[in-house]
């Protein structure tokens, strides 16, 4: 036993650091009993994570849980010796507590680089002004928080990754926050309020993931942006679509996205893109776009025309995913087949993989599938997953009847 303890004591410093970095705070502190060399080694950890693994408590009393967490964080920060590069607080049973302000103030004096705060219960937690003094931040992640940057705030000049979910932020504050982070590369926005017009001015942005209720979105200086996933959670009414009939959301959206490689159009965002004038093709094709995912109502002519414009403008598309919105797929008797004969004018010479999900087997959907099979000479697989088992056999028979321009194309029917 003594020999084993000696082996542990004599491990090289970098090995001990590696071991500690893979342990939770709770386990790391426990290593202090191994030997004198290990006693305070945990106190130099540069990455601190206080989550559900840092302590276990059987009580359902919120006060007991809160007090235990506060004692642990206070104890660790008091004894910590050295830089703290990453701090994460994410415990499922803890509400926003005033002690967080004190911890953030402490971290703002320690050159913190990564800060993650997730408040899983209760009201949105108002972030203290000391957060905006963390000038060395390169990653910021907030969940269920209210942000009000002070007037003297000049931005996070080193920030490369920003993840805001369930946050409240004023319209002007949002615009200035994004534009004052010149190195920003990754931006995630989910379920936000306080701002409805999204002006994304970020010259180094490469990845953008957004889902929420907003009225408008525009890009400026986003020529490095290559990956976009965007979902609009509110249905754009026909009255709003008529009001903007002389403009074009589709043209405005793509004008500052010359290098986009991957695009996911989720929820009702295709309906937003359909507002105003929909051209047959974009003025500048998306030559780098190789993956496209679209959620669509096949009975909405404007949406279909918008999807067709996107397809015509993506000559190098390799993967396509189409998700129907079955809740809106009410069969119509008089429907114009927008896809008819169009495969002759825009063959997809690179498209190899197609996934179609949530269809009911109505005529507009079948017209689209027929169009794709005729316009894809190198298609390898097309998987079709209907919304329900009702009419599945008839749908399968229809699929097998369609002609294909690709000799090796395989149609895969997936059970709903």
Note the gap between the termini. Answer: 59 Å
- What is the number of helices? 12
The Cα radius of gyration reads: 27 Å
Q: What is the averaged pLDDT score?
A: 85
What structural class results from the helix and strand content?
alpha/beta
Low-pLDDT parts are 31-35
How many runs of DSSP E, i.e. beta strands? 17
What's the assembly state of these chains?
single chain
The 3D shape can be described as elongated
In percent, how much strand structure appears in the residues?
A: 15-25%
Name the helix and strand elements from N-terminus to C-terminus, one letter apiece.
HHHEHEHEEEEHEEEEEHHEHEHEEHEHE
Please outline the major beta sheet. Answer: 15 strands, parallel
How would you portray this structure in words?
By secondary structure, the protein is of the alpha/beta class. It is built from twelve helices and 17 strands. The N and C termini lie far apart (59 Å). 31% of the residues are buried. The model is unreliable at 31-35 (pLDDT under 50).
Features:
two-stranded parallel ribbon; elongated; alpha/beta; 416 residues; 15-stranded parallel β-sheet
Q: What's a quick, concise take on this entry?
A:
The chain has 416 residues and is an alpha/beta fold.
Question: What topology emerges from the helices and strands here?
Answer:
Layout: H1 2-9, H2 13-21, H3 25-30, E1 47-51, H4 62-79, E2 86-90, H5 99-108, E3 114-118, E4 125-126, E5 139-147, E6 161-169, H6 171-179, E7 186-190, E8 197-201, E9 207-212, E10 216-220, E11 227-232, H7 238-243, H8 249-254, E12 262-267, H9 269-273, E13 291-296, H10 301-312, E14 319-324, E15 353-359, H11 363-375, E16 381-386, H12 392-401, E17 410-413
Parallel strand pairs: 1-2, 2-3, 3-5, 4-5, 5-6, 6-7, 7-9, 8-10, 9-11, 11-12, 12-13, 13-14, 14-15, 15-16, 16-17
